[in-house]
Amino acid sequence: MSILIKDTLVNDERQDIYIEANRIHTIGKDLAFKADTTLDGTHKAALPSLLNSHTHAAMVLLRGYADDMPLSEWLNHKIWPFETRLTEEDVYWGTRLACLEMIKTGTTFFNDMYWYYHGVARAVEDAGIRAAVSAVFIDLFDETKAAEQIDLNQRLFQETERYSPRITFALGPHAIYTVSTRSLEWARDFADEHRVLIHTHLSETRQEVDDCLNRFGKRPVEYLHDIGLLGPNLVAAHVIWVDDHEIELLHEHQVKVVYNPTSNMKLSAGFFPYRKLIAAQVDVALGTDGGATNNNLDMLEEMKFAALLQKLHDGDPTALNAHEAFRLGTEHASSIFGLEAGTLQEGALADLILVDTRSVQMTPLHELISNLVYSAHGGCVDTTICDGRILMQDGNVEDEEEVLAGARKTVAGLFPR
Amino acid sequence: MSILIKDTLVNDERQDIYIEANRIHTIGKDLAFKADTTLDGTHKAALPSLLNSHTHAAMVLLRGYADDMPLSEWLNHKIWPFETRLTEEDVYWGTRLACLEMIKTGTTFFNDMYWYYHGVARAVEDAGIRAAVSAVFIDLFDETKAAEQIDLNQRLFQETERYSPRITFALGPHAIYTVSTRSLEWARDFADEHRVLIHTHLSETRQEVDDCLNRFGKRPVEYLHDIGLLGPNLVAAHVIWVDDHEIELLHEHQVKVVYNPTSNMKLSAGFFPYRKLIAAQVDVALGTDGGATNNNLDMLEEMKFAALLQKLHDGDPTALNAHEAFRLGTEHASSIFGLEAGTLQEGALADLILVDTRSVQMTPLHELISNLVYSAHGGCVDTTICDGRILMQDGNVEDEEEVLAGARKTVAGLFPR
Fold it and tell me: Which of A99, A186, A194, B168 is placed for a possible disulfide with A127 were both Cys, Cβ 3.0 to 4.6 Å?
């Protein structure tokens, strides 16, 4: 399978892109390769596709279901009762819907944590994109539950072999307030032995910090440090309530941190200390969080929120500029997840998008990246390619109607009228 | 001219809408009217079209031209040099581009302040939407300039007769730091005599307050109060740096206030005290500000920023909910600008949109308004009707290519390579 994209805007120049199998083979002018498929890139710009570094994809089933509520009421009366009713099939269709939204808005990788691992993994497989998939690991400090979760994860790790390399296994210990120290230590050892990522929530709320101080006499990052969980394979979402010492620990252990501005604002969780983290050379990427707290998976919108929130908070219009915001959703994330993607270069994975530069949001075209981050919405993405396969062309995804119908049927079953 | 929209979701029920001339004639089930045009509303929801209460529309010509810069450098080196080169024809095409973007994202009214009044007004006339148009009134405390501006505005007020009632004249004294007290007093009297609105910027930056205190020994709202400018016909944009006494004055004089969250964040101007203003029963609407500080005119996106910023700042996820955010861009604005629009009811102006409820952003459909505010982007609008005329159908605007070409030509002339 090969694709030739003719005469498109690549890295500020009109060029062609030749894709062979799942890699970008050549970028250059007037390429003469014979390809199975040729795409006209005129009036389009080619960019790396986007990476969403923290989400609970299937939660798009709850989009708009319970907004503007206090956190505990939301969790106790809406989210948790819903989640007890979920089946693997529901999670499959929820994740298919999420993948469809991602493809339509230019995202081809997400870092997920949710129930029913195989529901998620099958959906990603069928949708044609990539994901680091983790099962939510919650033991509520109960040894029996912990043993079950450990068994489950050992099994899931093996079973991931059945999927294509687009799907990678990760551990998903939910948070320090839902997972015992012993289970976290198990995760540390298992992740080291099998070289897998650990995906967790960290210091999302002030309450979490207060509870940790009461319980362990130290702050969350210090607690994780003391049990040896901090390391380059730890991907921590939120990381809002951290002090200077904790930031230094994150840097020292090369922990990866995910900024979720929309979710943080919507739940009024707090302000992500981007400037301090960057000053301390901590690796940062960007995520939408789940569809119940955002309520979409549009990484272009997320980039705008990411940049504007920092500008307002720092009182500095130069804070987190458009190019940085774009990199948080492309090359920074690729590097964290070990993907040779996130920039357009020869030899890289053929994960890319075409954006219509003649749409109203992209007109005029003074500065492509500024337009993408500050003016465009996900609907400005015209073509999405992942792993050398065209998943969307001219805004059309082949199985869109089927996926929407499946998701609607699932929701109708979960919420009978 | 009449339009019948069949079987669409209106105010939570499947109904038909019959439009005759420029009004909504009847809303009900199984309407039997014979119409010139029938639209299939299945899988769609009808909503009032959106109103943008503060913008400088033609500045979309500068979309992405100068982002992430310090304010003074941005104004002195980028915006002002550009504006000195502008012609009326440039402003016409800039405003056409802005109107096209608004139509495509469901907005059919905007409150504008910019150079070349007739460039703006002609564009609005040709685009088929509505606007309150004001010429930027700046005298820089120079009597000759002030006299010129007064002459100009008197003339423009008369000349507005040449346009359809979709265009209304407003006065646009730019701000207290660019307009003399005498000119503001003239504006007060002229507005009273001719019953027109006064559109201004107010207390956008802390600097403005400090300068006002130094110059007049009082705060901006107090200063305007003392010269008699506060009144129900004053529409003040930004209104960030106001104290409790000023908020009380705004309430007492029924001043209308416009919240511009995206612009305020991008320029790090400050935090709009929504909760305090609402508690004091001040009328609030929503605006995008100009395309150089946003960088789009997407009112659905603006509603999301509006709500989320308040939630984070107040530490309260229930602050400014989706329904309130939607009303800021619909019925609140309609009431401020004296338009019988902003809700779908019989007798109201036929200014409405249809949204495709089967798009991925609207799936599932637990709560229409939540989906619109938190999940959708402007591209989810399918059909836009203003004054009883279909301006967009199935995402297509008749003269889109012509407008984009005109705008591109204008930009090419303004920024020769």
Answer: A99
